[in-house]
Amino acid sequence: MHLIRTTTRLLAGTLAVSAWTAFAAEDYVAPRGPGGVNPDLNGVWQAMNEANYDIERHLARASMGLREGPEGPVPDLATLYLGAVASVPPSLGVVEGGNIPYKPEALATRDENRRSWAHRDPEVKCYLPGVPRATYMPQPFQILQGEKEIEIVYQYAGAVRNIYSEDPGPAPVDSWMGQSVASWDGDTLVLTVTAQDERTWFDRAGNHHSNQMVVVERYTPTGPNHLHYEATITDPETFTRPWKISMPLYRRMEPNAMILDFKCVEFVEELIYGEYRREPLERFHLPDPSAEPAESE
After folding, report:
1. Second label for 95, Cα 20 to 30 Å away, from 85, 216, 248, 249?
2. Of the CATH numbers 2.40.128.20, 3.90.1310.10, 2.60.40.10, 3.40.1400.10, which one belongs to the domain with range 30-56+94-277?
3. Taking the model in full, what pTM does it have?
4. CA 190 to chain centre
């Protein structure tokens, strides 16, 4: 009965947010930005949700990395001594319509990624997050909008997206942040992102894609300090159909709001290279669960 009540509340909350977003977007007229044609999206923005833990709807979990215990999952060795700091908060999720439509083999890869989170999540080693994950990491980003040009800079890892106003054709190589091309649909900024490195993830739950993924983002002002964000993901190698995530983004309202330095590459030098030092500090090697028989989910 408790589970039924919880599920009902989750569904009601999701419907209420969707209805509010549609109403706000329809009635709000944003001030014009540079050039006086398109809405002004300049500012420092941030998501306030749990999507970077897991974009799908989920209950709280004991840890980002789990192993089978005597009476159910318990934290794995990589997160055991972090206690509640490594736990996963519950979330309504941001995937519209429920679960991600994985192909069977891709779902198996997601499960293996999840079992080996500490070894595989690119965030652990400060790799650039890719799109859409950069949008809802727990750090702000800034939209810099000129009359014709747009750039997005992220606090996490100093990630930057140089956005084309005209399509230059296919990118010569894949990259962590991909190639973004801008267009406008009324007051909605539309960014089409291609050529992303397949090693980027959607979250800390192992959700993944191939390098064939195309992401179409939509940024719509719904109030003076809110944007409605949508991203439609198409990747026929990984998913059975296109699917969408959506969420509100909030303007950082501090008088001196700005992007600060979080260049985390140096923070993980000990993790990645410390053992190669002439006199390395003490460390231990974590077992990789993906090398062991898979536990039942």
Report:
1. 85
2. 2.40.128.20
3. 0.88
4. 18
